[in-house]
Amino acid sequence: MSTLTTPTRSDRPTRFQTTGAEGPERLSAPAASLLVAEREITTQVRTKSFIVSLIVTLGLVLAGIVASGFFGDRIGSDTPVAVVDGAGAELDNVDGFEVTAAADVSQAQDLVRAEEVDAAIVPDETSPVGVRVIALTDPPTEVLGALSVQPEVELLDTTTSRGLQMLVAGIFGFLFMLFAMGSGAMIVQNTVQEKQSRIVEILLSAVPARALLAGKVIGNSVLAVGQTAAIGAVAVLGLLLTGQSDLLDLLTGPIAWFVIFFLFGFVLVAAMFAAGASLVSRQEDTGAVMMPTMMLVMAPYFVVIILGQNNLAMAIASYIPFSAPVAMPVRLFMGDALWWEPLLSLGVLALAAGIVIALAARIYSGSLLRTGARVSLRSALKGD
Which CATH number is 78-147's, of 3.40.190.10, 3.10.490.10, 1.10.357.10, 3.50.30.50? Predict the structure, then answer.
């Protein structure tokens, strides 16, 4: 049994053929598609560059989350304060302060000069409030705020901060763009190489063009979604290790939805990449056919970065197939989407992916065996 390479004899069955009573027989289209998908997956995962890049990416994600948790704990640590004769008793009922008792004003000043405490609160009969705050160089705003009488603050939006929303939106958009463009470029490169080397003629003698396209899309989709899921798992692990359970609770649902939307969104763009690559026969010509799809892949990232705080724009983007894989999970994280909206958005995305795959299969079948000059889109659709 041979591999996908050129057989040495015409009577030798390929991996796409089975030997029956009447001689070699083709595999069914589903079986052939799965075999092509297996070839796409094994070819990439065996390369050193794929393994190294995945390990580096996962390491950077884990390191970033651990570092953010570490510095967050350092920034949010208790403020050390020295008190004399019970001055500043208000701090006893306020979280975020580490109170140290000092015997007298002189000792409190020494603690401040040694930077063992950020500030000292000492009695002062001349002060209207009865105490005086001692600091080294700058007024201690945290201490002054705790000693002041402040009105109660009511927050109308208690979901997440704007900074965190922008960070999560940017990460979702970047991941979709990174893996969609990377895997899409691999599809384009492999397709053009097969045309240049004329291996595609051998493949098509055993596998229908549509099965070949389906296998490429399935294989690369598995790789892209697998890498995205691995990053999500590492992110969850990092949040657990750093004790950021509150953030983990907020991200668990959106991450799961992002992986689901990513699958359908990647299938859509992967079919477009493969169809575009089938129109050309040289690597030098791939830029022109890749550019439209690359622009659509980059669009979700810029949409969530530029329009992330515009509820109407994000709502519209969550129902546009090319931006929905990022916009809808971001809206779910922000708490702006109703329970039925991701289901409707996913349905629209799946329908669009089905239509694009049907058109891509027609283009792929009509242009894959045509070498030389670039095949026009109209000619490929007509199969001329």
Answer: 3.40.190.10
